[in-house]
Structures are given as C-alpha cells and as structure tokens.
Fold:
Amino acid sequence: MKKFAIAAASLFVLSGVAACGESAADKAAEKQADAVEATGEARADQLEAQAAATPNEAQEKALNNQADQVEENADRRADQIEQHGGNADGGMTTSNTPSTH
Structure:
C-alpha cells in the first residue's frame, strides 16, 4: 500500500509539472514577438544612424524621436502578441504573460 501511495503521489507531481510547461501557442507567440521586437530594433538602429549622420540638429532630433517611437511600437506589439498567445490555450499559462497596460 505504501508503494502505491508513493507511485500515485509521484504521478500527481509529474502531471502538475507537465501542466506548467509552455503550450505550442505560447512558444509560437513568443517566437513571433521576438521577431517583431528584432525588426523594430533594427529599424530604430537605422533611424539612429541616419540621425547621427545628419548635420541638421532639428532633423537629428526628429529622427531620434522617430526611432524611439518605432521601438516603443514594436515592444507594444510584441507584448500584445505574447498576451494573445498566452490566452490561446484557454488561460492555462497566462500567469507568465506580460500585461498590456
């Protein structure tokens, strides 16, 4: 009887660990969100390089502001993608997804 109780407890613990893993939707959303962030960061880097190359101070400031906005928008979109991916599995793994507020 003691061995049966230990085996049952082990199965219960293992099933709990398996439920904590990321779903396929979570993984796909995270990969897509990473790509969105990388693209936004690359575009922001291009704008910052343009800003550094311009002799016009006003244009430099405008390009740097645009770069900041591009990066913020990409981060916001990536968060939305991750949140949607976390909700795709019925909320089973949403405790680890970022909030969008």
